[in-house]
Each structure stands twice: as structure tokens, then as C-alpha cells.
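Task: fold both queries, return C-alpha cells.
Query 1:
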Amino acid sequence: MSFLTVGHRGVMGVEPENTLRSFRRAEQAGLDQVELDLHLSKDGALVVMHDAGVDRTTDGSGLVRDLTLDEIRALDAGLGERVPVFEEVLDVVRGPIQAEIKDIAAARALAGTLRERGATGRVSVLSFHDEALAEIRTLLPEVPTVLVAGGSGPDIVPRAQAVGARLVSLDLTRLTLDTVRRCHAAGIQVIAWTVNTAQDWALARALDLDGAVTDLPAEPAA
């Protein structure tokens, strides 16, 4: 595959993260995929938000799991944007989506939505949590899974293989050429986060990565 560019929570470097505005901007900028994060609200909605709480990215406070969707909808997520639910992103974003889930409950809810919306062909599921990816693989074996990890230790390849992940997303600052080579030897592609500066992009290319996750709508000039 050609070098994959992934918009991190849309293009969070220039737009409010994980909002429809941010996702639209990422697609307009020509990024190949958009990445988002999912938590379940108190009433079971798939809320698009990175943190467990709403405090950092909205004008509200509290944990997503303790708030109803209506309560979350009342919050300002930046520039007047509202916190979207996953179904809205499916309607707005036309290209491929990387959806990161935090736990097994979110995995089950996401699997149900993908089935209902016939979206299994354009969504890949990411997680730091092996058990959540294993649940997706059981429920929807046709959906690609992506293992996300901060470290780049020797366990990356067996962990990815155990959950059926053919792609891993790793922290650029902790990534080594040896890890990339071991993944490639096992038929596993590697992308890195978060690649923003000209130096980051140069390193991503030097490491022979398959792609990069970025906060920005364009690769900076060297």
C-alpha cells in the first residue's frame, strides 16, 4: 500500500478535536483516513471523545459514562461544535475511519452499529486493550483490527497476531527500526503517532513506516 496518512481526531492541531468540523477538515485536506475515539455515555450512546471525562475538550465536567447523551449534547466542544456520536461521523465522513475503543462494552456497541449501518467495509477498530480487539474479532471477524501501543517491545508482534491485527499504531518517539523490521517480517504494517513536524516526517520515512498519524492538515516543508 502507499504511505497512509491518518488525521488524528480529525486535524486536532487546527480544529476542535473529535468534532464533525475537524473530520470534515481532514477529508478536505486529503488525508487518507480519519481517526476518532469512542466512549459509552450513561445511556449507551457511542460518544466521540478521547478522554474518559468531558472537562478538557468541552465547557462541561464529569465522566462520559456518568452523563446522558442529552447532557453531553448540551456542551460546547469548541467553536460552537457539539460532541458527535459515531453514527453522525458515518454520515459525514465518506472515507475510511479508524475508530479507537476503550473497553469491551464499547466494542460490543460498536460492532452492533457497524452491522446495522453496513459500515464494516470502511471502519477499522483500534485499541490499546487486547481484550477489546479480541472481542471485535469474535463479533466481526471481517473488520480490520489495529493494535495501538506506546512501547515497542518484543511483545508487539505476538500481541498483534493474537488479536488478528495486520496493522499496529505505535508511538513515534519510542519506535525503533528493529521493531518495524520485525513487524514487516511478520506481515504486519506499522504506522506511528503523532507525526507533526518536518523532523517527525523525516523520521517516519527513515523508519520505513507504512503511514503516519498527524494533527495537521498538511505535511510541513522540510
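Query 1 returned. Query 2:
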Amino acid sequence: MTSFTIGHRGVMAAEPENTLRSFLRAEREGLDGIELDLHLSKDGALVVMHDETVDRTTDGRGAVADLTLDELRTLDAGLGERVPVFEEVLDAVGPGLPIQAEIKDVAAARVLAGVLRERNLLERVSVLSFHDEALREIRDLLPDATTVLVAEATGPDFPDRAKAVGARLVSLELPELNLRTVERCQAAGIDVMAWTVNTDRDLALARALGLVGWVTDVPDTKRRAARA
């Protein structure tokens, strides 16, 4: 079975996460796509950052939503990298590289939908979120968009929850996954990928579960998967 390997925030084990440097490294390493996270800045820019605040990943402090894009541009996101916006990532990596864009802030859904529509990106960009509301918003605005429900834990009704937001792929935390959950999703016509798959043991578990793909922090995960 051929499975896809997605670079988590680029390749965050090797480069500063969610930076152009990290995404370009993931592309050079031959990964099948990249995953990134989106918040809105104070002035409505689609900022690529995982946390609600800039404290952990930059030399600044404060909430992303309280800072303008110009203020965010002054911060060092690691090794001299600047905090990018979504459009910059689109322009930096190759036009054929798939992107999984995770909405961390529900308010970002409408802005993201506008970019996807304007740039005709529905075949290239999948929209992920833990927030059902954000995925419903995307589906309402862009019925043909690919949506992916992200979750840490699941229950018997999880496939129904995924279907309700139009998701035919779900991304689940690997330690919380078991064969019963995967089979329940597959029976409902929903594929399963996992985060985060870094070690050979992780890869073995992902394969045993029959996953269609995984997210990794490590640059050589795809090469190791191909050798397994």
C-alpha cells in the first residue's frame, strides 16, 4: 500500500516550525506535502503559526490576534526567519506541492475560503480543523473543498461527526488510534491519517492500522517508510 507523508509545520524537528525555511526543507526532502496552521492577525492577515500567542516560537510576546502583520514581521521566528502569511507559503513552494491548511482560529475560515477561491486552489489545498464550525463554514462557502476533521480522541459517533462536516479524511493522534476506530471510519467511507509519525515504531503501527498517510516532524520519514 502506498501512503503519503506530510511535513508537520514543515519539518519542525529540523527547522523552525511554520517558517518558509521549514516548508522549503520539507519540499527538498521529497515529502508528499506540507501541513501548516493559520490564525488571523489583528488586521486580518492569514498568519502561519500554531499557537494563539507568539511567545513560544518567536522572540516576541502577545496574542497573534492582538498584533498587526507589520508588528509580526518584526519578530524572529527562529534562525532569522520571519513569520509568514499563507500567501507567501503558496508562492515559495512548488505549485504542485499539496498543502494541508489547519484552521486554528474559526474566524480564519472565511478569509481562507476567499484565498482558495481567488487562486483556484481547491485541488491543491485541504482544509483541516479541530473545530466543526470552521469546517462547516468552509463547506458552506466552498462546497467542493476538501475538508479534514482533526481529533485527539474519538467515540462511536465519530464517523457521523466527520460526515456532518463533509470530511472524507480524518487526522487522528496516533497513540489514541486503534484498529476498531480505523475500521469504523473505513466502513463509513472515511480514510484515516495520523499525527505524529516520527519513529520506526510509529511507522510500523501506522502501517498495521492501514492508514492512508501520516504527518511527521522528521525529514527522512518518507525514505524510511519506503524502505520498510
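Both queries returned. Flag for query 2: The beta strands are 4-8, 33-40, 46-48, 99-103, 125-129, 146-151, 167-173, 191-195, 213-216.
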